[in-house]
From TrEMBL:
Subcellular localization(s) per the UniProt record: Cytoplasm
Keyword Transferase: yes
Provenance organism: Fructilactobacillus lindneri DSM 20690 = JCM 11027
Task of the protein: Confers DNA tethering and processivity to DNA polymerases and other proteins. Acts as a clamp, forming a ring around DNA (a reaction catalyzed by the clamp-loading complex) which diffuses in an ATP-independent manner freely and bidirectionally along dsDNA. Initially characterized for its ability to contact the catalytic subunit of DNA polymerase III (Pol III), a complex, multichain enzyme responsible for most of the replicative synthesis in bacteria; Pol III exhibits 3'-5' exonuclease proofreading activity.
A Pfam family matched in the record: DNA_pol3_beta
The protein, known as: Beta sliding clamp
Residue ranges occupied by any DNA polymerase III beta sliding clamp C-terminal domain in the UniProt entry: 253-377
Lineage: Bacteria, Bacillati, Bacillota, Bacilli, Lactobacillales
GO cellular component, one term: cytoplasm
Length: 379
């Protein structure tokens, strides 16, 4: 195996697949980077058994300046190899594999030799059926991930809740996550009729990693499913993730259909107020802030209290308030994460009672996005 390539192009591809490589894996060869060299392209693969990433460096792209002398495959220790390649002095990188998988890395006046491994020992990536494909704009899918993954559970006691539940039916994609204290649900209408019906749970950690990779991606992302794997295809990159096994709880019954008290704010305005109130609540053992609503007086007050430090009270300026008087306490961290997911738009917070979960939705009803937060009993 022997090739030369523009070093910057190789480093860019290397950075992508290294996201999937971990030094903590129980399968030693997975600490390595797999390089497959074909007559006209190079395929880089990284995996930690939970997620796998493949990206292609094409010889057809003149920016890559790729010259392939001999084809073949090798697995190189990712940590050392990555550091070496990124610190080499020249613009061109040459890699040649000799006897016993000894690999020579050359750039400028610098010459490294490191020990590689036989690529035949690298686990095969899962076969994923590409017949049924769900197409989504990458920007929209990144937004869906950002809005739902905040509510996945961090507790392994119920593994199914550590993922986001995706269902597709009659060309509507629904993504839901809950940790039993809060819930986030986003619906997206797909542009074309899709015959397939899907019901899968994708680990939250996998989706966070995928989201980072979609930064700046403007094209479509294709989602393909097999029995226990999902593959996302975008640009020259493929991202594989295992699926979580089990039945996700029916969350639709948790979302109230009506509310007795409604308040409208700019999401950014309410977020800033909650952040101020939480400055003191974080010093308290229970980390709770309180919202007092008096619709007849058009008064909404937010209160944070720590017996050891002090108290904060702020009168808010809602854009609209209606319904019954209410006092409700909640975890400010849940509220902050929920509000950040809305960005700069206006939201409506709807309450049914002081002890029932309340909802946060956009005032623009065109966008089907809802956050649900369970209040905290303070008496």
């Amino acid at each position: 195996m022997k090739f030369s390539i523009n070093r910057a192009s190789f480093v860019k591809a290397l950075n992508i697949v290294q996201r999937a490589i971990s030094s903590k894996t129980t399968i030693p060869i997975l600490t390595g980077l797999k390089i497959d060299v074909s007559p006209n392209h190079i395929l880089l693969t990284g995996s930690n058994a939970d997620i796998s990433i493949q990206t292609t460096i094409s010889g057809d792209n003149p920016d890559n300046d790729l010259t392939i002398s001999d084809t073949g495959s090798i697995v190189l220790p990712a940590r050392f190899f990555g550091k070496i390649v990124k610190k080499l002095p020249g613009n061109e990188l040459s890699i040649e594999v000799g006897d016993n998988f000894q690999t020579n890395i050359n750039s400028g006046n610098s010459d490294f030799t490191i020990n590689g491994l036989d690529a035949n020992g690298y686990p095969h990536l899962p076969e994923v059926n590409t017949d049924n494909t769900v197409d989504l704009p990458a920007e929209i899918f990144k937004e869906v991930i950002g809005q739902t993954v905040i509510a996945v559970s961090k507790q392994e006691s119920r593994p199914i809740l550590t993922g986001v539940h995706f269902t597709l039916n009659q060309n509507q994609l629904v993504a839901v996550a809950t940790d039993s204290h809060r819930l986030s649900q986003r619906k997206v209408d797909l542009p074309k009729e899709d015959d397939g019906e899907y019901d899968v749970v994708i680990p939250g950690d996998s989706l966070k990693e995928l989201s980072h990779m979609l930064d700046g991606e403007k094209e479509q992302i294709k989602m393909n499913l097999s029995e226990n794997q999902v593959m996302f295809n975008f640009g020259v990159t493929r991202f594989y993730s295992r699926l979580l096994e089990g039945n996700y709880p029916d969350t639709s019954r948790l979302i109230p259909n009506s509310s007795v008290t409604k308040v409208q704010f700019s999401a950014a305005y309410l977020l800033a107020a909650v952040e101020r109130a939480s400055l003191l609540s974080h010093e308290s053992r229970n980390n709770v802030i309180k919202l007092s609503i008096k619709p007849n007086d058009k008064v909404v007050t937010i209160t944070g209290n720590s017996p050891d430090v002090g108290k904060v009270e702020e009168d808010l300026d809602p854009k609209k308030v209606e319904g019954e008087e209410l006092e409700i306490s909640f975890n400010p961290d849940y509220m902050k994460e929920a509000l950040r997911a809305f960005g700069q738009i206006d939201v409506e917070v709807g309450f049914t009672s002081a002890l029932r979960p309340f909802t946060i939705v956009p005032t623009d009803e065109q966008e089907e996005f809802i956050q649900l937060i369970t209040p905290v009993r303070t008496f």
